[in-house]
Every structure is written in C-alpha cells, then in structure tokens.
Amino acid sequence: MTRTLYVGNLPWATTEEQLAEAFRQHGEVISSRIITDKQTGRSRGFGFVEVADADAEKMIAAMNGAELGNRALTVNEAKPRE
After folding, report:
1. Three-state SS annotation for the chain
2. Among candidate residues 23, 21, 28, the one with its CA nearest the CA of residue 6
3. Which of 4, 32, 48, 57 would staple 20 via disulfide (CB 3.0–4.6 Å)?
4. Residue range 43-52, pLDDT digits in tens
C-alpha cells in the first residue's frame, strides 16, 4: 500500500529528484511530483510524494516544518480529489 503526502512551501527551484531525495532519508519513496503552472511551466510551490504506507507517519513527523532551501516545509497527508 502507498500513501500520498502533500508538500507545501517548496522553494521555486526544487526538482522532483530533490524532493524525493529529501524524503528518502526517512523511508521508501515511490514517486514525487512538483505542480507547475500550465501557462508558464513555473513551479507553483507545492507537490506530492507517494510513499510506502508504513513510512508515511514517520515522514510527516520528520519533514513537517523541516527546512528545504531555507524554507520550512508543510507536510501532511494529501486529501483525495473530489
């Protein structure tokens, strides 16, 4: 099983690889993606990390408020789309 984590307040230049690597220190990362503006292609400052279910709570506790590129991240479980 997997869970998807929302990651907010990302530095604009963060890549999907950098995002995955930051979380990989705390457990298994399945995938990561940065949400970009459709017209400009620029990062919107948030993304999602798909992680192993067993590691999700540990990752939220470790990464919520942690700094990446001098910005404090907001990390919580993503809500399903309605």
Report:
1. CEEEEEEECCCCCCCHHHHHHHHHCCCCEEEEEEEECCCCCCEEEEEEEEEEHHHHHHHHHHHCCCEECCEECEEEECCCCC
2. 23
3. 32
4. 999 999 999 9
